[in-house]
Each structure stands twice: as structure tokens, then as C-alpha cells.
Amino acid sequence: MSVRRLKLGLLIQNRGFARSLREADLPQLMAVRREFKAHDVESTIKTFWEMDPNGVKVVESEKGEIMGVCAFIRHHDLYFGGLFCVRPKFQGLGIGNVVWHACRDRIGPNNAALNAVPGLIEAYRNKSGFSTVEDEFFCQKYVSTQPVNPHKLTNIIPKDVIIEPVQNQHFPTLYEYDYSIMGYDRRLAIYLNCREKNSNTYVATQNGRIIGYGTIKTSCMGTARIGPLYADDPLVAEALVKQLIISLPNVNGFVMNTLSNNLFAENILQKLGVPLVESLTRMYTKNKMVVNTSKIYAIFDINLAPF
């Protein structure tokens, strides 16, 4: 280890400095996430930052470089964590420990959750208190580096169902629909999600009642990413996926993060030819969050939201 790296490591460990993410940090944060080939969306991170401005912590160098990051976003009575990484050239200096504990100290005795990669399950359980392990599903990452063909999906939808871009008049019933699935009020997150740049949100209505909605966005890797996507009916979910893909052409690939116990979501991705690349284990410090996962076809954000 060079003298400079040794001094930097000692400084980090002694001062223990970490600060909250600022809006101006977002472009640099996305560059960091690209180093890890993560399919994050800058506007979505901004959405959750606006919901919880102290929810993302970073450690920066003397030159203003982001060296490490960790997020735990407050969702009602649950803090949900992700984005945990240290840039390769700064690893081995204790940065991960500093930024992790900055988030954990903020959470305090409250319930927290995350999606653990296979190699870190024991560490989260035995060293960090994430002792409650979800046994009904895994969170699954499906990624294609090539564009997908939406015309492989069905045109058949239930009678009287209309799929259209979200409009202002949809918001009151959209908030109610989301609440019926999640069990807590996410109207700010939903509103901001539908207003994100370079994204498209569609709703499915039947006789004036919302029975599904979904959003597609462009990730920092140039891929199209669908999430959230919720629907009461598998045919409606498939039709929403088809319309969303059509609405966002000229992308480098396709990403959708699902739950393993929603076999209809898996079927849609098989039709599109999108492979499963990783399965993550949901872990909590206290109680599991209970929702109707049969209606969840794509997670809002695998690093920042529980579903």
C-alpha cells in the first residue's frame, strides 16, 4: 500500500466521515455504478433522494471523488437498503465500513431490509443483524444486452381494458391502487416516478378502475428497464410490458427485476428471451413485509424499494 493510500485509509477510519448525497453528485454516482455494470436509473435515484434526502450516504476523497456509497431509504416504518459499493481503486481503506455504519446509525432500532447477493448472506445475518430471511421468494435480475422484440407478447387483454399513458386524472385512483398492493402511502414516489425524464408510464383501466400500471426507463448502461410493474391480471401485465417496450425504442438491451414466486412474470421474460442473471435473498432485521406478490411483476427499484 502506498503512503498516500495508507494516510487516506487512516484519515477515513479516524474521522469516520460520510455525508448525505447531494443532487449535484448524481452524474458522478452514475459513473461509479457503471463501473459495477449496474443498471441503475439516475432519475429514479433522484426520486428516492427527494423522498428521503438523507437516505443515501457517500464518502468522498480530498479531490471530491465519490469513493463509496450506501443507501437506506425510509419507506413508512421500513428502511430499505442497497447501492452498497466501494470503487475498486479505493477498496481496502475501510470506506465500506464507514459508509455502511453511517446508514445503520441513522436506522437505529427501526426495521430494515435489503436484497443480499449469495456471497454476503452470512455476513448480513451474523454480523449486521439481518436475521429474518425471506423464504417465499428470491429477487431476480433478468438482463439482456440485446434489444427485445415486444411483438412476441400477446395482444389479448380482458374485455373493456384500456391501456394508455398516465394522465393527471389517473393519479387519485393510481395512488389508491398502489396502496392496495403495498399497504402504505407512496403517492410522492408514484408522482415523481411518473414525472421522471426519459421514462414512460402506462396505466391499465377497466370501466374506469385502475387494474395495473408500469414504467419503463433508460438505465445508466443504456438498457431499457421496466419497474415498477403491477397488475391484477397476467394478460394485463403482459400487455403493459409490450406497450412499454414499444414506447422506448433505440435502447441497448432490456432489464426487469422480478420475484421468483410470480411465475407469470417469468413466463413473460421467457417469451422475450431475457435470461436470469442473478438471484438475491431478501433479509430483514425484524419483521417481514407482507404483500400480495402475485400482483408484482417488476420491482420499483431493486436497491431502493422493497417491491
What's the Cα radius of gyration?
20 Å
Specify the number of helices: 9
Structural class: alpha+beta
Shape verdict:
globular
SSE order: HEHHEEEHEHEEEHHEEEHEHEE
Question: How many DSSP-defined strands?
Answer: 14
SSE arrangement:
Elements: H1 3-15, E1 19-20, H2 26-35, H3 42-51, E2 56-60, E3 66-75, E4 78-86, H4 95-107, E5 111-116, H5 121-127, E6 132-133, E7 139-144, E8 161-165, H6 171-182, H7 187-194, E9 199-206, E10 209-218, E11 224-231, H8 234-247, E12 254-259, H9 263-272, E13 276-284, E14 296-298
Parallel strand pairs: 4-5, 11-12
Antiparallel strand pairs: 1-2, 2-3, 3-4, 5-13, 6-13, 7-12, 7-13, 8-9, 9-10, 10-11, 11-14
Helix pairs in contact: 3-7
Quick description:
With 307 residues, the chain is α+β, with helices and mostly antiparallel strands. The protein is built from nine helices and 14 strands. It holds the Pfam family Acetyltransf_10.
Describe the protein:
- The protein has 307 residues and is α+β, with helices and mostly antiparallel strands.
- It has 9 helices and 14 strands.
- It has helices at 3-15, 26-35, 42-51, 95-107, 121-127, 171-182, 187-194, 234-247, 263-272, and strands at 19-20, 56-60, 66-75, 78-86, 111-116, 132-133, 139-144, 161-165, 199-206, 209-218, 224-231, 254-259, 276-284, 296-298.
- Strands 1, 2, 3, 4, 5, 6, 7, 8, 9, 10, 11, 12, 13 and 14 form a 14-stranded mixed beta sheet that branches.
- The chain is globular.
